[in-house]
Design brief:
- There is one protein chain.
- The strands form six sheets. This protein has a four-stranded antiparallel beta sheet with strand order 2-1-23-22, with no helix packed on it. Strands 3-4-5-6 form a four-stranded antiparallel beta sheet, with no helix packed on it. It has a four-stranded antiparallel beta sheet with strand order 7-8-9-10, with no helix packed on it.
- With 368 residues, it is mainly β.
- The chain is 6% helix and 45% strand.
Length: 368
């Protein structure tokens, strides 16, 4: 039996959810209360053009009592969502991040939650994470390897998520340890990577995806530019190419750089002028406690992203949208009681705007 259906039926038994049509209790139960576990993936409808965009038609497509689910990405045909699951737990039974992405795997769930498959299974002591579809034939990139020696790979599945082209390593200079790969075509990939001799500075690189050739168009990090005064604590993560391939959105932090320091901020970088960049999270000032993270392009001029506010007693995580020049910032209204992290925008076959979001239920304990 499908796990989500089983959870709903169990909730009916334990909590007496009403079976009468149209009751508020039943609707709430069906949408979240009886379906959501500690960690979840939601698919929602939302009009991002609204002054206060609010999610509707919320579906729970994947749940877990102990496996956090991150990096959700929708397949080109809109039938599947690929994502990363964590398989290491702490003493409380919750997903543990102490070892980073060790023992992660790449899963895929149908967009309606009816089936789940493992695409890239667990490799003990290593990580398999951060998949990203490109093209129209179920091709994807992902990160794999032991901690400290990761590499970018690409692979391909069929329409049922069976591997038909097994992982092939992408050629990346040996001096770079890559993270967070994203490709939008065979000839355009972006990733962040450690590249200095001390292994301290992480920056963003652009190159060809072709695994059989020397990297083309490689651009080194911009933090060496004279007009950017950071110490070696700078970190740049999760770079994302715009759909037209002309710009990269990335998240950067420099927490120990004195007057030039700040928490995570979203920057926009033109591909043809990588030293010309714009911080579009200016509304956060230089706060180290308020952070914009995990940007994704909705179109060539609009981004969705998560905001993490550490200033209160709780770690508040919400989803926002803004234009690529930093204007029009607004929060996406999602159900209370959850911390929201990774988000991925897509349109269904009828052209309706949707989001996939990872959601952690705040008041729910983990599996023992």
């Amino acid at each position: 039996m499908n796990k989500i259906l089983y959870a709903f039926l169990l909730c009916l038994l334990l909590h007496g959810c009403s079976g009468s049509s149209g009751s508020d209790d039943q609707n709430n139960c069906m949408k979240l209360d009886c379906l959501a576990s500690k960690y979840n993936l939601f698919v929602v409808d939302v009009d991002l053009n609204q002054a206060s965009p609010e999610a509707t038609n919320i579906s729970v497509i994947a749940t877990s009592d102990f496996q956090d689910m991150t990096h959700p990405r929708v397949s080109p045909d809109k039938n599947w969502v690929a994502y990363t699951t964590y398989n290491v737990t702490n003493a409380e039974g919750c997903a543990s991040y102490d070892s980073g992405y060790v023992d992660t795997e790449i899963m895929a769930t149908r967009i309606d939650g009816s089936e789940t498959r493992s695409i890239i299974p667990v490799t003990s002591g290593e990580l398999n994470t951060n998949s990203y579809w490109y093209g129209n034939d179920y091709e994807f990139t992902f990160l794999s390897g032991a901690p400290g020696s990761t590499n970018v790979y690409r692979a391909q599945t069929d329409g049922d998520m069976n591997l038909i082209a097994f992982p092939t390593q992408v050629t990346i200079p040996a001096t770079i340890m890559p993270y967070d790969p994203q490709a939008i075509s065979d000839v355009q990939i972006v990733y962040s990577g450690l590249y200095n001799s001390m292994g301290m500075v992480k920056s963003v690189f652009f190159q060809s995806l072709n695994p059989h050739s020397t990297p083309v168009g490689l651009t080194l990090g911009r933090d060496s530019a004279d007009n950017i005064l950071y110490n070696d604590d700078i970190m740049e993560n999760d770079p994302k190419l715009s759909p037209d391939g002309t710009h990269v959105a990335l998240m950067r932090m420099a927490p120990n750089s004195g007057v030039n320091g700040f928490g995570w901020r979203i920057f926009i970088v033109p591909i043809d002028s990588p030293l010309s960049e714009e911080n579009i999270s200016t509304s956060l000032g230089d706060s180290l406690l308020n952070n914009d993270v995990l940007p994704e392009w909705v179109d060539n001029s609009t981004l969705v992203f998560a905001n993490i506010d550490l200033s209160g007693t709780l770690n508040t995580r919400t989803i926002h949208v803004m234009q690529s020049d930093g204007s029009g910032r607004k929060q996406v209204i999602l159900p209370d009681g959850y911390r929201y992290g990774d988000v991925y925008p897509f349109r269904d076959s009828q052209g309706n705007q949707k989001l996939v979001v990872s959601a952690e239920k705040i008041d729910m304990v983990c599996a023992p």
